[in-house]
From TrEMBL:
PANTHER family found in the cross-reference section: GRANULOCYTE COLONY-STIMULATING FACTOR
GO biological process: immune response; positive regulation of myeloid cell differentiation
Gene3D superfamilies: 1.20.1250.10
Family membership: Belongs to the IL-6 superfamily.
SMART domains (alphabetical): IL6
Keywords: Disulfide bond, Glycoprotein, Growth factor, Secreted, Signal
Natural source organism: Bombycilla garrulus (Bohemian waxwing)
Pfam families recorded: GCSF
Signal peptide residue numbers: 1-19
Any one GO molecular-function label of the UniProt entry: cytokine activity
Designated name of the protein: MGF factor
Localization per Swiss-Prot or TrEMBL: Secreted
């Protein structure tokens, strides 16, 4: 349904920043610069995730999502929500806050990937650093623009998912990365849409 989501995103009405049309903000040079910088950051993070996905494919021979869907049902892999970024009543604050909350969720779940691919720790660390930069950049800009920073309580304070077997751990790692890539695509589309207003 990723294509359907893109279509949905395209047709939805994006509105309201404190009731004012976003176009008032979109002309703001600082805001445009912020969006461009975060589009670049998001692109970089997507590239980092894609590189890790290639490693998982090459190293663990886990490459195709449709072949793993049955195993996925046995796993408890959370998908960070981003519905605030493609709702009819789009609010920049809640979308940005949700992007930050999602980055936090995926940041902690990357420990699962690091345990799977100890030889690629540097790649995981680069990704974590880029995610932290993206998150703090969004927070800084929200403060500069006087937007309310909504802090979503962490969805679950639980420890990382536990896997009943090494194979489940590998498939869990595969789906964490696949979910994260989808999350980033949605975030990227939201930022790009804002930049085009």
């Amino acid at each position: 349904p990723a294509g359907g989501l893109a279509l949905l995103l395209g047709v939805l009405l994006w509105r309201a920043l404190h009731g004012a049309p976003l176009t008032e903000l979109s002309g703001d040079q600082d805001f445009q610069l912020f969006l461009q910088r975060n589009l670049e950051f998001t692109r970089k993070v997507r590239g980092d995730v894609a590189a890790l996905q290639r490693v998982v494919c090459d190293t663990l021979q886990l490459c195709k999502e449709d072949e793993l869907l049955l195993v996925r049902q046995e796993l408890d892999i959370a998908q960070a929500p981003l519905e605030q970024c493609h709702r009819r009543t789009f609010q920049a604050e809640t979308c940005f806050s949700q992007i930050r909350a999602g980055l936090r969720v995926y940041h902690s779940s990357l420990a699962t990937i690091q345990a799977l691919l100890p030889g690629h720790a540097a790649l995981v660390e680069t990704l974590q650093l880029d995610m932290a930069n993206l998150s703090s950049n969004i927070q800084q800009q929200m403060e500069d623009l006087g937007l309310a920073t909504v802090t979503y309580p962490p969805e679950n304070q639980d420890p990382l998912p536990t896997f009943s077997s090494h194979f489940h751990h590998q498939v869990g790692g595969f789906f964490i990365l696949a979910n994260f890539q989808r999350f980033l695509e949605t975030a990227y589309r939201a930022l790009r849409h804002l930049a085009s207003l």
